[in-house]
Task: inverse folding
């Protein structure tokens, strides 16, 4: 049964997103490709196409739920109100909270307002505590914060050097979690700093950093892991329960006045006695990534879902670092290291429980359970037309939003084009060698749409009327007409694009005829608008010259090759017309009233008559 699925996220740039974040968003389409999917950033304008589509399921991924952290809080309430129509939809609503000890009360209220939801949480054992309203009428399923993606596993393994050839003994990139997470959330960062200091004291080659400036993204991160013999890590999670963000707000306010305050100072001022009342552990995807890239792991002692065992799968590190000498002694044995790496790979990477395919099967089993008699979803061709319409509507809405902020001209067009490229999904769902070409195509089409949106749709595109009294009038009028025709042709190109279905990745290649046609239309639209802009520059220069001539009687007289005595009379007349002395203005107006009875013959008379009427 084909279903229509709306996936909401809040990633600003899908092309540059962390691989683990993108994989969670795209996994549903990768492993259930027979369904129809539309991806939408939750803070973007809601298009009519989204509102009018009959959705079988709406998935709110964890980054979309992150809007509950927005401050001032009214920003969150405003975004939540935008999506209130979901409460009236019979679509299956599925939510994926992760850092749910933070803001869980706000999320609980939101989920309750949606009606029944499928609560797919990384902490099902705490669901009644964290979501008391939601759990009264919703189903709870346990999930992980990350999985192994079958489609990218071979690529990740290609980044991995043989263990003996890796030049970095211990590596890691991790940021120190903010104070609002409590001491438990800071264990990963503190352990990294502790191992770094101990290794450097021993003169060992390590590459460990908690500086946000050193964060690695995309393939750079996996290349880094593939060159590390060991990584240092810990369980994720939080040890402060802050259901409505009140503690977080107090911390932010305190740090604004005391920017260098220590954890202990902030704790005493903002959340005394709260840290550790509840501990919400988590299994971080970093452990899976290290296993996929063949790294040995030095992990702070913890539960690790009851799957990983100390010394069998990882080298245990005491929280206080009291066994660092033992840790550095163990890592000398590379044969034992390879046995632990292989055992970890088997228990995690080869385990179906840790595969995205398992997560997707669980989700779609749940959807079918809630919609057992659901009619067939939209035919793929019809859904594809809807998706193309959605993209066109979103481009138009973003253009208007950016223009209201104050962006104009090429700056506005560039912003819209970059924005639409950053939200283009399909080449990233099924990545391939031509992904960049597909993204370039979508950016080119967005640029054409945005430029077309900025141009006048009827009448002449200039408010400057040609002045009949100067020789350039005919040229100016011709330029205006030509610019109008160029804009009209550019709009017709965009209309043709909007009337076509942009082929799916996989159904066409970047060099196929239909893609070539789309690219040609978008390029032609850009060329037409570019030509119009160049002509408009010439027209503006002529219009400015007209304005100068209109205001400078001597220049006008010279242009018209008037006799010397007529130049003086014209200059006097125009000066009198704007004089402060009412008697001079009266004389000028008397002459005008006489000339107004009919258009006088000759350049001078016609000029005086026209200027007087204006």
Result:
């Amino acid at each position: 049964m084909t279903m229509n699925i709306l996936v909401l996220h809040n990633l600003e740039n899908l092309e540059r997103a962390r691989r683990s974040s993108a994989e969670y968003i795209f996994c549903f389409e990768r492993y259930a490709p027979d369904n129809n999917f539309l991806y939408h950033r939750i803070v973007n304008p809601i298009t009519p196409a989204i509102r009018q589509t009959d959705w079988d399921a709406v998935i709110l991924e964890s980054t979309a739920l992150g809007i509950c952290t927005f401050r001032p809080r009214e920003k969150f309430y405003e975004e939540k109100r935008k999506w209130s129509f979901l409460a009236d939809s019979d679509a299956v609503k599925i939510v994926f909270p992760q850092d749910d000890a933070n803001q869980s009360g706000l999320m609980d209220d939101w989920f309750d307002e949606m009606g029944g939801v499928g609560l797919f949480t990384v902490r099902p054992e705490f669901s009644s505590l964290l979501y008391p309203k939601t759990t009264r009428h919703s189903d709870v399923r346990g999930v992980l914060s990350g999985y192994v993606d079958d489609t990218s596993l071979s690529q990740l393994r290609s980044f991995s050097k043989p263990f003996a050839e890796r030049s970095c003994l211990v590596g890691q990139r991790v940021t120190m979690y903010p104070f609002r997470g409590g001491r438990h959330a800071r264990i990963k960062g503190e352990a990294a700093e502790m191992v770094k200091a101990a290794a450097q004291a021993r003169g060992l080659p390590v590459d460990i950093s908690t500086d946000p400036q050193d964060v690695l993204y995309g393939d750079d991160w996996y290349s880094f892991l593939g060159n590390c013999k060991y990584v240092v890590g810990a369980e994720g999670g939080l040890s402060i329960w802050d259901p409505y963000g009140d503690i977080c707000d107090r911390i932010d306010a305190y740090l604004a006045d005391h920017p260098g305050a220590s954890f202990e100072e902030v704790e005493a001022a903002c959340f005394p006695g709260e840290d550790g009342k509840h501990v919400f552990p988590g299994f971080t995807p970093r452990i899976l990534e290290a296993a996929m890239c063949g790294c040995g792991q030095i992990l702070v002692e913890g539960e690790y879902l009851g799957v990983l065992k100390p010394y069998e799968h990882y080298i245990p590190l005491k929280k206080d670092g009291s066994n660092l000498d033992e840790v550095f002694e163990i890592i000398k044995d590379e044969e034992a290291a390879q046995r632990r790496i292989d055992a970890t790979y088997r228990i995690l990477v080869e385990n179906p429980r840790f595969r995205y395919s398992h997560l997707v099967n669980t989700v779609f089993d749940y959807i079918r359970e809630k919609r057992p008699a659901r009619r067939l979803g939209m035919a793929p061709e019809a859904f594809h037309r809807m998706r193309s319409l959605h993209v066109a509507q979103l481009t138009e809405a973003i253009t208007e939003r950016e223009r209201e902020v104050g962006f104009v001209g090429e700056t506005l067009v560039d912003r819209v084009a970059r924005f639409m490229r950053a939200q283009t999904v399909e080449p990233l769902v099924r990545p391939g060698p031509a992904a960049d070409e597909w993204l370039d195509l979508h950016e080119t089409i967005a640029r054409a749409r945005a430029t077309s949106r900025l141009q006048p749709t009827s009448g002449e595109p200039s408010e400057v009327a040609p002045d009949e009294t100067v020789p350039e009038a005919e040229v100016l009028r011709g330029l205006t007409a030509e610019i109008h025709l160029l804009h009209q042709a550019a709009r017709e190109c965009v209309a043709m694009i909007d009337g076509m279905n942009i082929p799916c990745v996989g159904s066409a290649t970047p060099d196929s005829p239909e893609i070539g046609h789309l690219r040609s239309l978008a390029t032609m639209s850009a060329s037409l608008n570019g030509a119009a802009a160049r002509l408009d520059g010439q027209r503006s220069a002529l219009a400015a010259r007209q304005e100068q001539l209109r205001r400078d009687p001597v220049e006008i007289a010279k242009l018209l090759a008037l006799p010397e005595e007529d130049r003086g009379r014209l200059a006097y007349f125009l000066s009198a017309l704007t004089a402060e002395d009412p008697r001079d203005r009266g004389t000028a107006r008397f002459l005008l009233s006489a000339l107004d009875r009919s258009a006088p013959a000759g350049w001078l008379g016609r000029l005086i008559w026209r200027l007087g009427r204006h």
User: Anything to note?
Assistant: The radius of gyration is 34 Å. The mean pLDDT is 83. The first helix runs from residue 19 to 31.
